[in-house]
Amino acid sequence: MKLIEQLKKIGKVYKEGKNEVWFIIPYKKIRGAIKSVFDFGIIRITSISGYDNGKEIEVIYHFVKENFLLNLKVLISKNLSEINTITDMFPGAFLLEKELSEMLGVKIIGHPKPCKLFLPEDFEGKPPLRK
Amino acid sequence: MHNMMIPFGPAHPALPEPVHLKLFLEGEYIMGVDFSVGYNHKGIERALEDMEFAKSIFMAGRICGICSSAHTTCFTQGVEKLLDVQIPQKAKVIRTIVFELERLTSHLLWLGMLGHEMGFDTLFMLAFREREYVLDSVELITGKRVVHDANTIGGVRRDIPPENIKKVNKNLGILKDKVEYLQNLVKKDPIIKKRIVGVGNIDKDDVEKLCLVGPVARASGVPYDIRKTDKYLIYNDLNFKVVTQKDGDCFARAVVRVQEMLESIRLARQALTLIKPGPIRNKPAMTFTEKESISRVEAPRGELIYYIRSNNTNRPARVKVRTPTYANLMCLNKILLGNSLADVPVLISSLDPCLCCTDRVTIVRNGKEEIIKLEDLHGHH
Question: Are strands B368-372 and B361-365 parallel, antiparallel or unpaired?
Fold first, then answer.
């Protein structure tokens, strides 16, 4: 697929399976990578997973086109803890980004409505899924 | 300019779902919607991290009482990918049968609730009466009526006794006629039509843009069905069609679900003929390494997706669940705008919501929203 070739120039494939590809994309290039996914014509984002591996926050965007799953992973340093929103291209990521932000404490820059989703608005303390 | 804000839920007599809506009205008509969820957030994703894989299946099955089997199938499928284990054919067949029976119970329950929301309680009674045939059949297969716990890593926990295959088949035969009657009722009854035809439209573009799933997507003409695309379990060997409608209104969503029930009966009966003697479980060595997997299934409400990550222990490092209702919440704005307040329960139940979710206290003063914290409330004593 043309998109895969394009993404290979930006990031690295770290896992391949039946109908799925997993990329790791450098933090600074994630916006460009997601833009190329959008330009390719994939419009469905099915989930955003976040994981605190102790050193960094891993964020994985799961895009889907029919039976093909494209997973883009980006590592965010805990000191910085912020990433640009993708809701301008993928409006379906609206709730997913909110959840990522409250559960793992990743600030989403440019989110149209950056309030809490599941947690109470006055919740204080460290994000629940941070290690 | 909105002239009134009506709070709706989270415990509203007309809508027994823990969702809080703020409806901005102009006269009778809704001009803006804001929703909040979280009233029922149980922290299951975090709880799963503290459980051994073998035990966590039971926790996953309790995320939802109605689509319990969808959750366990999706979870075990993900774990099986981590362990690189193939499950026996017979286990696949049993999982498929339970899966389809579960879709039937879920859609029948939904049809009953739709009838109840529009004040047509006879439909509620009829749907719940027919649902018993399915629950009995599920009991014959798994030993349980609601939360089945049929799946385990590497296969299923219980074989179907041969004499029960006939009984289940007979039940499904009776149910087919009953569902056909219900289908006729939904399609032709003037009361139902008056209430739900042409309300709550979602067009095809919005479905794709907002990433809507399941019967909601299919009712707007998007044939998005993981059973067809991913061909997991034995769906590749079964003959079924993806039911779609074009109109995208409440009526189309009702028709899609009723027709899907008939497809599910066909699927379950086809799968029953495929049961051949053989093992029901490949017991894998439960040694996990650093890996991650993603697993999708078509739950009764749409695409359910699990991201599972393991480390070198026997507990998951992370489980992320994206349930179908979570995805479908995005369209609340679209379906409610411009409709009247009285239609809210019917419109929301047409999405078949299953909410698991906490909220905040807000008050609107001079058109501005203010978040009131717990201390402030205490201060007002």
Answer: antiparallel
Q: Name the nearest CA neighbour of B301 among B74, B117, B12.
A: B74
pLDDT tens-digit profile of B181-240?
999 999 998 988 888 888 888 889 889 888 899 999 999 999 999 999 988 889 999 999
Q: How many structural domains are present in chain B? A: 2
> Can you give the residue range of the structural domain that contains B79?
44-324
Please write the tens of the pLDDT for every residue from B257-312. Answer: 999 999 999 999 999 999 999 999 998 888 899 999 999 999 999 999 999 999 98
Per CATH, the homologous superfamily of domain A2-109 is NADH:ubiquinone oxidoreductase Nqo5 subunit (3.30.460.80)
* ipTM passes above 0.85: yes
pTM of the entire predicted model = 0.90
Which residue's structure tokens are 């919740």? A123
Q: Which helix (H) or strand (E) holds B270?
A: helix B250-273
CATH of the domain at B351: 3.30.390
B169 and B184 inside one domain:
yes
Q: Which residues of chain B approach chain A closer than 8 Å at the C-beta?
A: 37-38, 41, 43, 45-46, 81, 208-211, 229-231, 292, 294, 296, 303, 305, 307, 309, 317-318, 320, 322, 326-327, 329-330, 357-360, 371, 373-374
Residue B7: strand, helix, or coil: strand
Q: Which of B41, B45, B211 sits opposite A46 (nearest CB)?
A: B211
B250-273 and B89-117 are packed helices; what angle lies between their axes, rounded to 10 degrees? Answer: 150
**Stated length of chain A:** 131
B307 contacts A49? CB cut-off 8 A? yes
Measuring CA to CA, how many Å separate B209 from each of B201, B234, B340? 15, 30, 25
